[in-house]
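Worked example

This section walks through a single chain of length 524. The input is the sequence exactly as stored; nothing has been trimmed or padded.
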Amino acid sequence: MSIVVGDFNNDGKLDLVMDNSEDDSITVMLGNGDSTFQNETRYIVGSQPSTVSAADFNNDSILDLAVVNQLDNTIGILLGNGDGTFRNQTIYPTGTTPTYISVGDFNNDRKSDLMVANGGDRSISIFLGNGNGEFQSPITYTLGFIPFSVTTADFNKDSKLDLAVADMDNNVINLLFGNADGTFSNQIKYAVGSAPLFIVTGDFSNHTKLDLAVTNAQDNTISVLLTDGHGSYQSQTTYATGHLPTTLAVGDFNNDSKTDIVVVNGGDNSISIFLNYSIGIFQNQVTYTVGTSPFSVTTGHFNNDNKLDLVVSNTDDNTIGVLLANQDGSFQNQITSTVGSHPYGITASDFNNDSNLDLAVCNTNDNTISVLFGNQNGTFQNQITYIVGLRPITIASADFNNDRKLDLVVINSDDKTVSVLLNEGGGNFQNQTTYTVGSHPYGVSAVDFNNDGKLDLAVVNELDNSISVLLGDGKGAFQNQTMYIVGSRPTNIVAGDFDNDTKLDLAVTLSGENSITIVRNLCP
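Given that input, the structure is written out below as tokens.
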């Protein structure tokens, strides 16, 4: 799972985007500015997305997304709408088994281009951007090794964008110098540690020139290579990390105007912080425990205190962990938020009316949901569990009985039901009431479809290619479903007035067709 940070809805707060290889989607989580995030929105992309990157591809001052789809040998471009939502992806073919993507202006035309590393045919593909969100056919370079990760920068100060590529086959990094027309000159190799994986740039010696750092997975080190500013690098200096270092990021974590390094250690569930002591010399690592099998890390100001915080994706326990920074470069214990399966779905709302944000989480393996009350400081009280249906995967909150308390609706994927749990007050919920829907329900939307002032439900049924609409009575109960056939494998649903008739329609993602369908509301 890769993770990227950006302000996707232009509200001055940092948001998150992650790839979900298990269901061929990406997740967008809009930030609240206090290290918490709104409910996730998922977008269907190609097969097994592995990396995501953000930039403005059509020059509208709105961040767009580029996603690597590893198993179908494509990249997907999703243009941003400026409100945190994205358009359907546009597909471009790459080389075999693309693994990594990087953004840069490779031909000096002030338009964002893309570089894709193709592990299957040991090549890189350059996609020159047209500045309108579209890209030209790729220019391909055969490297002779597996390019695991790539970073872009002007390494020799000639105003042309260059590439640095991690070569895990030969334990080197390769520099390819740009010609400013989208092509590159012959590569120069520098020895690093065993099995280099991810590479980053940073000015580690405070001389306004870009140095390099790379993780070496097999010998549990990072290599730092300082530059002379003209494209040549000194021999590596290595620093011990935790077990199986994978990704890394840079930032000034202790506000001393020096660039520090954070490394994710996937083998021992930790991260390592390397504070920059002087001119590219780093202190020994300080480690922090995170979730199970962490993979990706990125930085941002998640609680708006002007200290650089961290967010880590924990792949095996399907969480993200936010580590808030202290002034001295140390970090607080991670605050976790569930984003994937086992547990799967999550929603955040104030269930007990104490003005603190609470959580409700689906637990797919034990057929329950957990409610955790927030303490205002990013921590949560012990969970309260409620029994629901078989394999709950999606959860949402709304006031279904008009008592000004937030209730819950849960999608139970294996028994063709939804569960409604009414809030009795104080965040205590009644036992579930279940309603039959279609086969393998997945997504849900709660809005007023018939304009009677009462919330209704729309549920996506993935395996019978339908949606179910259940009209609410305003007292917390719902009528039997009315089913509508849509396209192949619907997975997500969102309501909106797409035809400007003041009635809420539905947009449904169809993963079997890689498309979206609009279901118009024909209520009188």
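What to look for: Residues 346-519 form a domain with the Methylamine Dehydrogenase; Chain H fold (CATH 2.130.10.130).
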